[in-house]
Amino acid sequence: MLFFRLSCQHLLRTAYGNSVALPRQQFVKLQFHTSVLRSLKEQQNVKETAGWTERQKKLRSTVHYVVATAVLTIGLSYAAVPLYRMFCQAYSYGGTTAIGHDADKVEKMLKVQDRVISVRFNADTAASMRWNFRPQQAEIKVVPGETALAFYTACNPTDVPVTGISTYNVIPFEAGQYFNKIQCFCFEEQLLNPHEQVDMPVFFYIDPEFAEDPKMETVDLLTLSYTFFEAKPGLKLPVPSFVKVKQ
Amino acid sequence: MSSMTFGQKTFTPTPPDKGSFPLDHEGQCRKEMVKYMVCLRTNTNNNSACREEAKAYLDCRMNNQLMAKEEWSKLGFGDLETKVKSEK
Questions:
Q1: How far does the CA of residue A68 sit from the closest CA of chain B (Å)?
Q2: Is the pTM higher than 0.90?
Q3: What is the ipTM metric for this complex?
Q4: Which residue windows are transmembrane per the record (chain A) (predicted)?
């Protein structure tokens, strides 16, 4: 306020040629005031420019950090796919089994006599498949740890040889990991001559660890279901990767 | 169709340990199979009671080149084999 008053008086004096008398004290104060203000302004300007470059530097480093984080996230999401697959195979997580069972396991496994499991058999054919395919027994009572044999029968009523390929399914899904087949007739092409009937055995066992799984406590019934498709050239069956296609 | 089951439980089939049985086109082991089925029917589908017949069927398959020869203990019939040996 004082500055304003003094500056007004200064202006008036310069305008009217010293006719407005400015007391000496006030004039000195005015001079001091302006010089102080000027230096303050200069300082502020310097600080502002310096602050601006500092702020710019900080901004730049933040941008660098953010961009690096984004690149890292994108890279991790791409790398996660093969890494997860390797992890699953190593630890058999989520139903994927380790490649290959031990033959020693069959030798050394002990049967769990008190858990009797009924295995029901189901047979299906694709709509265009001309074979007659059915199980020979409706169900078998098995105990975990004991190998069992079951039979299916397939008949070719047509006058031409028909090649079939089959896949299987075990219900409930969680019990599927305990169902181990030693030998069967799935995933490979089987040729049936005209008017021929064959018996197809399935040799399997249920892992003794089935009895120790708390999720399987109430499971007494397993259903094994086979489906036969006609193997035409160009047929794309959803076969798992481990199956070697016969040439 | 199988690709649309995202989030649902899926079943992953596993390969058989010893591969696939060759087909018995000539029906060489049919008698053993019938004996096994009869045994199952008389024993109310109890697998534990018919293991001898199952062993006989697999034996027939091995003898007729319809199955790779394997020791009985590796096929889970070790107890039957020791019983036979002790009886002899």
A1: 32
A2: no
A3: 0.83
A4: 63-84
